[in-house]
Design brief:
globular; mainly alpha
Length: 241
């Protein structure tokens, strides 16, 4: 057994999970209103609920912080795996990406089930996007484009999120196979086909996690009861006051 790999894998998973467990939505809403975002609106500790229940500025801060924590976790995973002295014959670049995916999975788990907040957190969409930015910006742009198109036409953030999650492994498979694997096939810099398989497998896991976390939204979508995106307005605040 390669104990170095085991130690680095465990360290990456634990650090990423703890970073993910920090919830900007809960912290910012508490500072702004004194309330727990999980008792407001949809009850979700995420950007959309902060936008609807608290306002635009807190929502913007929330989404930025969620991106930062996701990117930070993945970069740490990259660094931990990049420092490997024994990669078992795997190229360092390939091994580094595996570290990024591992960190990405656990930062999303931490975001969804934060140890600091009773294991009740957000749905991991923004954090997953942060993973994509670092691991493969090409996939990120495709997923982001899909999300924006769906939301622009439907005004349903949940539908855009679920669609992006479903397309994530598909885009990952296509990009890694046609843009990474095939062009280098037979060259000195050849990337093994396992890279395509592992990358796609990780994307499937992450996409499935996001879809599962949206199970209530999916039920409402099928029932035609899902709310469309709308920021909390000043008028509504004044009327409540």
């Amino acid at each position: 057994m390669n104990w170095e790999s085991v130690i680095r894998t465990v360290a990456t998973a634990v650090i990423a999970y703890l970073i993910g467990s920090l919830s900007p939505a809960i912290i910012i809403t508490k500072i702004k209103t004194g309330q727990d975002i999980r008792t407001m609106g949809s009850g979700n500790a995420g950007f959309t609920n902060v936008l609807r229940s608290v306002g635009v500025a807190p929502a913007v801060i929330t989404i930025i912080c969620d991106y930062v924590k996701g990117i930070l976790a993945v970069l740490i995973g990259w660094w931990i795996f990049y420092a490997m002295t024994n990669t078992n014959g795997v190229s360092l670049m390939e091994y580094q990406k595996y570290g990024g995916y591992l960190a990405g999975v656990f930062v999303i788990i931490g975001h969804s089930f934060p140890i600091f907040y009773g294991f009740k957190g957000g749905k991991g969409v923004v954090t997953a996007n942060a993973l994509m930015i670092v691991v493969d910006f090409r996939v990120f742009l495709l997923v982001l484009g899909t999300f924006l198109i769906v939301v622009a036409f439907t005004k349903l953030v949940s539908l855009g999120s679920v669609t992006g999650a479903v397309m994530f492994p598909i885009y990952t498979c296509l990009i890694t196979y046609f843009c990474d694997y095939l062009p280098l096939l037979g060259t000195a810099d050849e990337i093994r086909f396992r890279f395509v398989l592992i990358s796609t497998g990780c994307a499937i896991v992450i996409g499935a996690m996001i879809v599962i976390r949206h199970h209530a939204n999916i039920k409402r979508l099928f029932a035609g009861q899902e709310k469309k995106i709308k920021a909390k307005s000043k008028e509504s605040k004044e009327s409540k006051g």
